Amino acid sequence: MAKNKSKKGNKGNKSNKSETPKIERNWEDLGLMMGLEIHQQLNTKHKLFCPCSTELIDDEFDDGIIRNLRPTQSELGQIDRAALQESLRDMTFKYESFNNHTCLVETDDEPPHALNREALDICITIASLLNMKMVDEFHTMRKQVIDGSNTGGFQRTGLAATDGYLDTPYGRVAIESLGLEEDAARRIDSDDEFTEFRLDRLGIPLAEITTDPSMHHPEQIKEVAYMIGQVLRSTNVKRGIGTIRQDVNISIIRGARVEIKGLQDLDLMPEIVEREVQRQLALADIKDELIKRNASVEDTIYDLDEVFKDTVTGVSDNKKSSSRCTPHRDEVRVWMLPANSKFFNLDGCLEKYGYVYWAQYYHLQKGDIVYIYSSSPDSCVKYKLIVEEHDVQYGAHYDHEEEFFVDNFLWNISLTSVQWN
Fold first, then answer.
1. Within 13 A of 243's CA, how many CA atoms are on the CB side?
2. Which residues contact 180 (CB under 8 A, 6 or more apart)?
3. How far apart are the C-alpha atoms of 252 and 30, rounded to whole Å?
4. 38: number of CA atoms within 13 Å, CB side?
5. What is the number of other CB atoms lying within 10 angstroms of the CB of residue 95?
């Protein structure tokens, strides 16, 4: 976030500070609705599912591991579409670990231990202060995450309490839920090939407090955030930058719900809300003007290859025909990849054409050997294929495979592919 700095005038002169004129709005007529989501680290001795310390480490790490995460099927045989879309970025993740501060639970090489009772006790205290009702039983659930911040590809979370409230000068605000979950790994660095995380933060107990969208004035969101913060500080929670994260959901009648994540400065909250409302109103005005002009978007797709044939790109000559660039290597690699007949009829495609295009999740390249493990009902390694092309650009040559996709959504996102034969 950029800071606006007013430049001081010379000694003896009065400095002029320009300010954006404040616009008075009728928030009720605009239908302003806001909700708040707060994540607060708990100051426990151990992490949520292992005995490791909850302190962050700035020393040089001892070990590193490399992972490629991919979406998996649920118990019902379904794949989360958001996770699948994220996996198409084909990212590789590095994780920094410490011999005396992290363990096999963080690297997902050992099952989680019993739930941290100290963390649960703190949640019970928070729930009482927020007039909430504790659940009869705490059940740990899994929330799928595939951005690399969790080594296992999911976050462990559970519902601790519901149906609370806070009375504010602007009226009562309902506290919908209080959750207890594990924090994600710290992002250290990233480039075109790797995103690097540190495992010291992964697993720190985190209280998640969610309100309903019953706030209707920009100043109220600041007031509620302050009151919840005071409640949290009266318990055993961590203090300092990065130990608490606040997300605000904002919507108006003419606009849409927008989530603004990671707000730290309470004093900026009202201004951020006002500017978001101003942005949505401007977009709504543009929409009205386009409708007045009978504007439309043509369905025709134009081929611009001829127009851009002489342009220069940053892609090397041998990869100009591709939208992706797999890092080059000389050795041939052997892969084991899964296939699921519930989503794609691989048998039918190979029988009819003898080859298949496949969404390129991995750094496959020409010459690599790929063994295909077919899931239930086969449950065996069924095919040995050779990669004949990689970084294949989508084109008409690919359209014949649409008939083999069971789900049209999967067909629509399978645009960057490899050819196996």
1. 16
2. 48, 119, 120, 123, 138, 157, 158, 160, 205, 206, 207, 208
3. 6
4. 29
5. 24
Name the phi and psi angles at 262, rounded to 5.
Answer: 75, 30
Q: What's the DSSP call for residue 193?
A: S
The tens digit of pLDDT for each residue in 66-82 reads: 888 777 766 676 777 77
SS3 223: helix
Tokens of 294: 């009978």
Task: Count other C-beta atoms under 10 Å from residue 286's C-beta.
Answer: 10
C-alpha pair distances (Å), 225 with each of 174, 180, 418: 13, 19, 49
Strands, sheet with 417-420, edge to edge from the N-terminal-most edge strand: 334-339, 369-374, 380-392, 417-420, 356-359
Residue count of the chain, please give it: 421
Phi-psi region of 161 (alpha: psi -120 to 50; beta: other; left: phi over 0): beta
CA distance 123 to 245: 17
Beta bridge mates, 338: 373
Rounded to 5, what percent of the chain is helix, strand, coil?
20, 30, 50
Q: Model's pTM, two decimal places?
A: 0.68
Task: Compare 49 and 328 and report the one with higher pLDDT.
Answer: 49
